[in-house]
Each structure stands twice: as C-alpha cells, then as structure tokens.
Amino acid sequence: MEIVPPDAAEYYARVRSCVTLYGMKEKIDLLIRNIGQLCTVPAHDSGPQRGSRLGDLGIVEHAALALHEGVIVAIGPDSDLNETYSRGMTLDAGGMLVTPGLVDPHTHLIWAGDRAGEFEQRIAGATYQQIMAAGGGINRTVQQTRAASLDVLIEQAKARLNTMLAHGTTTVECKTGYGLNTKTEVAMLNAVALLDMEHPMDLVPTFLGAHAVPPEFAGNTEGYVQLIIEEMLPAVAAWWDENWPGTLFSDVFCEVGAFDLDQTRRILEAAKTYGMALKIHVDEFESLGGAKLAADLNAVSADHIVVTPEADIKALAQSDTIAVALPPTPFGLAHRDYTPARQFLEAGAALAIATDCNPGTAWNENMQLVMALAARYLRLTPAQALAAATINAAYAISQGDRVGSLEVGKQGDVVIWGVPSYPHLSYRFGSNLAQTVIKRGQVVYSARWGGTF
User: Fold this and answer.
1) What pTM did the predictor assign?
2) pLDDT at 26
C-alpha cells in the first residue's frame, strides 16, 4: 500500500474512533497514554550502551508520553501527564508495550530483480563464493540494477520500505553497491534521496562502490580500485555537496573475493579526505584484519563480524566503532557460525543488530525477526536485543542524538506493540507485533486502521 503523509482531515477521520480531543492545557500535538510498559532505552553518557550495560531499557510502568511538533516534550506517570497535557489528541495505548521506533543500520535497500534461482543453488550445496565465481551473486543483481530505470528502483525500494515501516522500523541506512559504475551508483544515491523526501521514514545513505569487482574489471581488481578512488569518490562527493544535507557514509566489502585489506584502507582513506564517515563489511567468511582497520580508522561501524579474532574484538571494544551483527545473513545462508556477541560484550564493545536486507542472502525487512534471531543465535537477552535494535543501531549510523530512544528533546518516533512487555519482541516470531507506528509525532501505520497511510 502506498504511504503518504495524511492531510489533517483524513487523519482525524481515521483516528476519531480511538482519539479524544480536549481543550488546551499545555501545548502539545499528541499524548500517548495508558502505556502498560514504556521502554525509553536511554543513551549512556551521550553514546551507545556498551558491554555489560547493554540492555538498559529505562522502563517506566503505567506511563504516558507527550509530543509537540514531532519532538518528545514529556515522559512520566500516566496520571500526571494526563492531567497536565490535553491539547490536540490523546492516543490510548491500551495498556500495551511502547518502545522507540526500531533502527536498521545496515541494508542494501536499492536494487532491481531477485536471485531466487541462486537460493535453490545454495540449497543444493553451492557456496556463496562458488556462485560469485560463476558470475552470479552480487554481479547478477548489478546486471539487473544497471538495466532498471530510476523510477523502477524507487518503486521496488518503496515497497520494501513500506514493509519495514509496518514492522516498526522508522530509520534505515541504505547502501548503494549494485551499480559498480559511476552512473548507476549516483543513480542509486538519487533514489535514496528521493525516497527520503517522499517517505515517512528517515533514510541514511552509504556509498558502497567497493561492494564487488564488476565483470568489466574481472581479473583487474586494482584497476577497479583506481576507478573508485579517482572517478567514483569525486563524483559522489559532488553529489553529496549538491543533494544531501546530512552524513554520507562510505563502505567497503573487505573479504576474500572482494577487496583485500590494503585496497580497503586506500579506498576508505580516500573517502575520508572528502569528509565521508566510514563503515566496513568485515569478517563475514574470513578475517583479513578489517575489524582492526575499522578501529584504526575510527570507522563508525564494523559490520558482519562473524569470524573476528579475539585481538580484533578487543581493538573494536577499545574504540568508538560500533560492532554491527547481521544474524539474518548466516540464517539465510544456513551457516552455523554467527557473530560471537557475548565475546564482544565481555570485551566492552558497543553492539548493534541489523537486517542486512539484500536480494542474495537476507531478503528480510523485519527487525522483529532480527531480534528473535539475535536472542537465539547471538545469545542476547530480549532486553539486549531491543537496545541493540534501537539506541545502539542509531549510533551505528551517527543518528543517536536524534533517534533510537525515547528521551525529552528527541524525535517522536514511537511504536505501540500489541503485546504487554518487551520480552515478547524476541520470544515471538513469524507475525507482526507492531500495532501503531508513529513517526515525528504522526501516526504512519496502524494495524487497527488497516495498514499504512
């Protein structure tokens, strides 16, 4: 279903059955009351929750939440806020759980086509690396994405965004990386910017020209690295200057069959000269030292971190780099090894989780499923999984000062769940538990009213 911001008349018509309008007391736009359990998930020392402190949910029982002009202005006991704030609308949470909007800090959202045939190949025994070597994998999606128009890229990505929003995600990182030439990579950035303008969700762009070596550079990885450094990065920097007001990330897939450690370093150091923030795909299949490089370069995040050695785990833990686990990927590949999350936490690292939504290994738009997988395979507690999917995920895309927690002064991104307490978000899976999703103080999804609008 198409998502468009509702006009006032349509909005009030939809919500009149469960919204009460009052006269003015204190000036607010929305009061969410009758919250059974409110998880505020606070930042720690103006940063992510680290190590053994991950899982601080800042729970307030029998609470209410007041929002004005898209910003949280008050949090407290339901009886106190209901007495003080009465202008505008009051939304009854029905005694259910309320949390911050979920944040997805690692996706490959913009692509065309699918790779369902490769899924059958993997089930029959082919490995990810074998499929790539035979011309499939990322390069198959590159072929389809290069052939697609900008309108097609936007249309297909919008459908995925709508699903994310309906499942409680309100902020999402979006990588390029299925163009692998300057023209298509910039087109993918244009798609992200246009979707950010027209969709309720906040999108955060990442340039991932170093996702794979395209077919025209087969056997000449070094030539492609030079193209990224000498042509793509200047073009992307120019696009950023003209089209995007916020942070732009640059990322590299540091892995056997993609880019080695030296190539990764040179690409990221070049991106840094343009002011781009850094991310790195590391240690998904083999460790090349990418996690240590992420810490050395002060990257915002190091992602995948499945086979990260102990020394590199300690290096990440001693840095400001967020460790981002992507449990849908080994699940999608039917692998046994997942991110050793307990080791990261014991070392004192800041850990986040994400979908890795992509057409090859993890076509999943649902952060609820990520929390369920994180509890089972990363051995996170439900509280830790929720914090990793909200406040820490926000810091993994440099958005922790705006979103990821319910704190006065932050953006009013809120989810009302159809469950009474937070353990249900990891305990249950296979159905959508999101009841109402609020973005910047406006209801943008409601299961009760029939979906997204």
Assistant:
1) 0.93
2) 65
First-to-last C-alpha distance (Å) of the chain? 8
Measured distance CA(356)–CA(363) in Å, rounded: 8
Amino acid identity of 339?
Answer: T
For residue 365, give its domain range: 103-395
Q: Are residues 341 and 446 in the same domain?
A: no
Backbone angles phi, psi at 75, to 5 degrees: -135, 135
Count of structural domains within the chain = 2
Residues 210-233: what's their mean pLDDT?
97
Is 400 inside a domain boundary? Answer: no
For 350-367, write each residue's pLDDT tens digit.
999 999 999 999 999 999
pLDDT reading at 368 higher than 80: yes
The predicted pLDDT at position 450 comes to 60
Going along 297-429, which residue ranges are E strands?
301-304, 322-325, 351-353, 414-417
Q: Which letter does DSSP use for residue 202 in this model?
A: E
pLDDT, tens digit, for every residue of 309-350? 999 999 999 999 999 999 999 999 999 999 999 999 999 999
- Is 64 found in the same domain as 205? no
Local structure of 395: helix, strand or coil = helix
Give me the CATH number covering residue 324.
Answer: 3.20.20.140
Please name the amino acid found at residue 50: R
What is d(CA 56, CA 33) in angstroms, rounded to the nearest whole number? 22
Distance of CA 67 to the CA centre of its chain: 24
Co-location of 61 and 126 in the same domain: no
CA pair distance 290, 285, nearest whole angstrom: 12
Residue 141 sits in the same domain as residue 181: yes
CB count within 10 Å of CB 46 equals 8
pLDDT(24) > 70? no
SS3 276: coil
* Alpha-carbon span 165 to 346, nearest angstrom: 33
Nearest of 115, 184, 172, 173 to residue 148 by alpha carbon? 184
Range of weakest confidence among 37-51, 255-269, 382-396, 438-452:
438-452
Enclosing H/E stretch for 250: strand 249-252
Interval 123-133 mean pLDDT: 81
